[in-house]
Write a structure and sequence with these properties.
Helix content: 40-55%
Organism: Zooshikella harenae
CATH topology of the largest domain: Beta-Lactamase
Radius of gyration: 61 Å
Largest sheet: 5 strands, antiparallel
Number of strands: 22
EC number: 2.7.13.3
Strand content: 5-15%
Number of domains: 6
CATH superfamily of the largest domain: PAS domain
Subcellular location: Cell inner membrane
Shape: elongated
Number of helices: 26
Main location: membrane
Strand order of the largest sheet: 2-1-5-4-3
Distance between the termini: 120 Å
CATH class of the largest domain: Alpha Beta
GO molecular function, one term: protein histidine kinase activity
Length: 944
């Protein structure tokens, strides 16, 4: 109740409340008692008066002396509070009456008046009625109270009725109440005065203390308290004064320290300001140096890569010619050294892009499984040369259709697997892909590369992800490299919202891992399905435990009945038992490794499989593929697949074994084996679609040089017609074509393919922005290639999407040595060496490509000018794209660059109108380069 009240209020309350409470209680108690006493006193006096009148009225009634009775009644009225008197005879007749008329006639209203005293108390009066008796002989007892009991000796004479007024008594009551109230109020006022004086005496010193504390709180440390009091308050006062004195001393000391510190800080700030100016200048110099370094690295890397690509390309051409073994050895050394140098330059270029913040990631549909398998396929020869087992393990709950940058993903994986191969001398390298988290249509994928190599110490692990640092920094190290691979991988993983880590122990191998967080593709890729694969019986033998687990993962996807065995003898026994039970296995899948499966065992398995109506698939390393293929040359019932085992490669091999079952049991093996040989080693049939005759001719020539059968068409409509007539293994589709473009053509082909086998379609584009590449894949294309393309790219793409092996045909000495650069000039307008390289080393084809470009160049120039004047941007972009595509395969670097710039600006201007301001300057450059090339052609024709 008093929790939030001040001390003064509490003192008043404690002083007033008890006193007021006691005064009120006692005043009310004694007032009520006095009022009751007044009522009792009136009643007793009235009764006494009546009792006194009875003996006197007895004598008058006996003598029937009315005068005497009248005088008696009149004298009775003189007594206090008597209002009126009435005497009644024994017959209840009034005898005499004195005073005013009674307010209420009690006896007259009664039939039988009472024989004893009757008292009636009303608001204003008291009525007392009493009978009058006498004795016949002796009337000695005048006690009216004893006469209340009548005996046979007493005689009834009548009644006396007296009315008493209560007015005087009520007045006395009011006087009593008034006196009590005044007394209580006087007591309360006196108490208030005393409480107020007491409160002032207590609170005034406290208020002084409070005011002094407030001044002290405001910083007035000179304040002192002197309230001239005693007791506890005096003690409190002394304590506060002592505390303030101590605070004042501390404040003065602190002030001195602050002044000294401020002076020191000011000197320090001046020093820091000077240092900041120096650091800012140094930072600007460092940034400028870093920018110059990054530009230098980027420019030099580009400049070095251009001639280096020429070295690699012409080395490949020389390797395909007739050279001596020593020359071939020299050329192979040149090729490997150039490729290593190119890899180093690519790392430096990527690192400079990362430092400059200019490395951008694509966001396009990608297949996680295919990306991993592609990396392992490329790196498999290096691993197999060291007899290492490469094992890809992609768990079944891991989504494979994602949206991301497949090139950068493969770059990270290539770095990690290459390092694992470098630092592992025996054992295996396991690549695992697993689902870490899935939320809001995004998944976090963890990919780890675990090897059984030399391992890393804690100190080496701390230095791993620093630029230009390596685990082995000794002068006797035998592992090369720039030390940038892991740094680049770390930055790329972070750009993909992931991270990179390592777990290793010296001498016990290492496990490098990285995570990426990417969206899931809305439209998963269409998966080939052959119902005949279901419930087919497969027996599988793989010595390596993890490799066997990986193969089982793949086979489960095909809904096959798989039996696994653990040594060749068990495999032979199971094959024999199956033949005996007349339920032979359809396919025996056997992994070859020199340490546990030699060629003699393969020969025995070939015989056992042939006798038991079972087809044999041998899984071999790249360095043993040739020897096993020689072993299988005359065997139509077996097939060799290169490890590591890839999904598409195994899928196609199994489907070609099982898909068709001939009606004649005797011809089953020969028929299926023929299908296999046709499928795996046959000439691929490829459809090439391009509206530019020069481009179409070059692509066809390159594909034919790889041993492919090519059907070439120049429009999307013709391409659709050809897909209805023939079954193609692969389609190379130009993107921009008049009428029906490549995207529309692809959609039409995909609509017709519903429920049928899907044909891989590869987009060919001279120039594509990142967003356009994403649209290509979303439109139904499986991959894309940027012009100019070369034989190595074509060979890799054909193998990736068809599983068919193609190889360049060996050229003759005359073909390679007869090259002459009759079209070369010193101005650089025409670079015939570059044209020959782009034409796959064929001078006659390069000359044809240039002639075809020159033949229509004047018309192309006029058409571009006309479209530019008409501001027909769509048609202008299409025409520039056509010319750009033609220059991609000719040695005209200046015109090619001008077309590239013009096309880039026109594409950017589609979404940003401000970019069209750059079109004019790009147009001038394009026309100028066209005029220079036409002028060069006229001069060349004149000299001819």
């Amino acid at each position: 109740m008093f929790r939030n009240k001040g001390l003064k209020s509490r003192v008043f309350a404690l002083a007033l409340l008890p006193t007021i409470s006691i005064s009120l209680v006692l005043g009310v108690f004694f007032t009520i008692a006095r009022l009751n006493d007044l009522d009792t006193l009136l009643l007793e006096r009235s009764q006494a008066t009546v009792e006194q009148l009875v003996p006197m009225s007895e004598y008058g009634l006996q003598l029937d002396n009315n005068k005497l009775l009248q005088r008696l009644a009149s004298s009775a009225l003189e007594k206090n509070d008597v209002r009126s008197i009435t005497l009644y005879s024994h017959e209840k007749q009034p005898v005499i009456h004195a005073g005013p008329r009674m307010l209420t006639q009690h006896l007259s209203n009664m039939k039988h008046p009472p024989n004893n005293q009757q008292t009636t108390i009303q608001k204003d009066t008291i009525h007392i009625a009493l009978p009058v008796f006498t004795r016949q002989a002796h009337a000695l007892n005048h006690d009216l109270r004893s006469n209340a009991q009548l005996s046979s000796k007493r005689v009834f004479l009548g009644w006396i009725e007296v009315e008493f007024s209560r007015a005087n008594t009520e007045l006395k009551k009011y006087q009593t109440i008034l006196a009590s109230t005044l007394l209580i109020i006087s007591g309360i006022l006196i108490n208030l005065f005393l409480a107020f004086r007491l409160g002032i005496h207590i609170t005034e010193p406290l208020q002084k203390i409070i005011n002094a504390v407030a001044h002290i709180r405001d910083g007035n440390l000179d304040t002192r308290i002197n309230s001239e009091t005693a007791g506890e308050l005096k003690t409190l006062e002394s304590g506060i004064n002592a505390m303030v004195a101590s605070l004042q001393r501390a404040h003065l000391e602190m002030q001195q320290n602050i002044e000294q510190s401020t002076k020191d800080l000011q000197e320090t700030l001046e020093t820091i300001e000077i240092q900041n100016i120096e650091l800012d200048m140094a930072r600007k110099e460092a940034l400028e140096a870093s920018r110059i370094k990054s530009e230098f690295l980027a420019n030099m890397s580009h400049e070095i890569r251009t001639p280096l690509n020429g070295i690699i390309g012409f080395t490949n051409l020389l390797l395909r010619s007739k050279v001596t073994e020593r020359q071939r050895e020299y050329l192979s050394t040149i090729q490997k050294s150039s490729e290593n140098l190119l890899a180093i330059i690519n790392d430096v270029l990527d690192f400079s892009k990362i430092e400059a913040g200019k490395l951008e990631l694509e966001s396009i549909p990608m297949n996680l499984r295919e990306s991993i398998e592609e990396v392992l396929t490329i790196l498999a020869p290096a691993a197999h040369d060291k007899s290492l087992e490469l094992v890809p393990l992609i768990y079944s709950d891991t989504p494979t259709q994602l949206i991301g940058d497949p090139l950068r993903l493969k770059q990270i994986l290539t770095n990690l697997v290459s390092n694992a191969i470098k630092f592992t001398n025996d054992g295996s390298i396991v690549i695992r892909a697993m689902l870490e988290d899935e939320k809001d249509n995004k998944v976090t994928i963890k990919i780890s590369v675990t090897d059984t190599g030399i391992g890393l110490s804690k100190e080496q692990q701390n230095e791993l992800f620093k630029a230009f640092s390596q685990a082995d920094t000794s002068t006797t190290r035998n592992i090369g490299g720039t030390g940038l691979g892991l740094v680049i991988s770390k930055h790329l993983a972070q750009k993909m919202q992931g991270e990179v880590g390592v777990e290793s122990e010296l001498g016990k191998g290492s496990s490098f891992w990285f995570t990426i967080t990417v969206p899931i593709a809305n439209e998963p890729a269409i998966k080939e399905h052959f119902p005949a694969l279901s419930s087919s019986r497969i027996i599988m033998y793989e010595h390596h435990e993890l490799a066997a687990q990986a193969i089982m993962h793949l086979l489960r996807d095909f809904d096959l009945d798989v039996t696994q065995c653990y040594d060749p003898n068990e495999l032979t026994q199971l094959l024999e038992q199956a033949r005996y039970d007349r339920n032979p296995y359809d396919i025996a899948l056997v992994s070859h490794h020199p340490s546990y499966t030699d060629l003699d065992v393969i020969r025995q398995l070939l015989k056992a499989a042939a006798n038991r109506n079972t087809h044999l698939i041998i899984l071999a390393s790249t360095n043993k593929e040739a020897s096993i293929n020689r072993l299988l040359e005359n065997n139509n019932n077996a097939l060799c697949i290169v490890k590591p085992l890839c999904y598409n490669r195994l899928y196609r091999a199994l489907s070609y074994f099982i898909m068709e079952q001939p009606s004649s049991p005797g011809s089953k093996h020969q028929h299926v084996a023929k299908r296999i040989n046709q499928a795996i080693t046959r000439q691929p049939h490829i459809l090439a679609v391009d509206d530019n005759p020069a481009n179409l001719k070059l692509v066809s020539a390159l594909l034919e040089d790889l041993g492919a059968k090519v059907t070439a068409v120049d429009s999307g409509t013709k391409a659709i017609i050809k897909t209805k007539q023939y079954h193609f293994d692969l389609i190379f589709m130009d993107v921009q074509m008049p009428g029906m473009d490549g995207l529309e053509t692809t959609k039409r082909i995909r609509e017709r393919e519903l429920g049928e086998r899907r044909i891989p379609i590869i987009a060919l584009t001279a120039h594509a922005l990142a967003e356009e590449k994403k649209q290509l894949l979303l439109a139904g294309m499986d991959d894309y290639m940027t012009k100019p393309i070369n034989e190595n790219q074509l060979q890799h793409v054909i193998k990736k999407w068809t599983g068919l092996h193609v190889a360049p045909l060996e050229s003759t000495d005359e073909q390679t040595t007869s090259s002459h650069h009759s079209f070369d000039d010193s101005s650089g307008i025409v670079d015939m060496a570059q044209g020959i390289k782009l034409a796959g080393g064929k001078e006659d084809l390069a000359q044809d490509m240039l002639n075809m470009l020159l033949a229509g160049l004047e018309q192309d120039r006029d058409e571009i000018r006309s479209l530019y004047r008409e501001k027909n941007w769509d048609k202008l972009l299409e025409q520039v794209h056509r010319l750009h595509g033609a220059t991609r395969y000719c040695g005209v670097p200046f015109l090619r660059q001008a077309c590239h710039d013009m096309e880039s600006i026109l594409k950017a201007a589609e979404n940003n109108k401000e970019e069209r301001r750059k079109v004019a300057s790009a147009m001038e450059e394009l026309i100028e380069q066209t005029e220079q090339l036409l002028q060069w052609n006229k001069q060349h024709q004149t000299t001819q």
